[in-house]
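Tokens for Transport-associated OB type 2 domain-containing protein. Go.
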Amino acid sequence: MFDDGSFVTVGTYESDTACGLWLRRADTDQSSNGEAGDGGIYRTRALPELPTGTIDDVSTFLDNGVLVEVVLQIQGRPLLLMAGELRESMQGSLVFTRRDESVLVFTDPSTVTSVTWVPERRGLIRS
């Protein structure tokens, strides 16, 4: 939450050619609006493992002109938000997909270098 009482929401967008992150200012905390309990498609749950507090720094990264990653430093703890999806293959292995319509969250950004991404994670430009 900002000093003026507004919030930032992180979502994704999808066009004919790309998927990426979309950051916007909101007047209310949409995570507490009860949509999940009202039969909507969104599910909410507590995530106590995520850092909370003052955001000290924000780094954004583009892939072919599309915002695909945001790293927040929250009171010294990093939090990586990435446009992507995790799915299970027909063989039962996990497939880490970048630039997809979901948001992946990493409390340890170095984790992203230990898996194989489809498409490959490279060429990011800090914006």
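Residues 34 and 40 are 9 Å apart (CA to CA).
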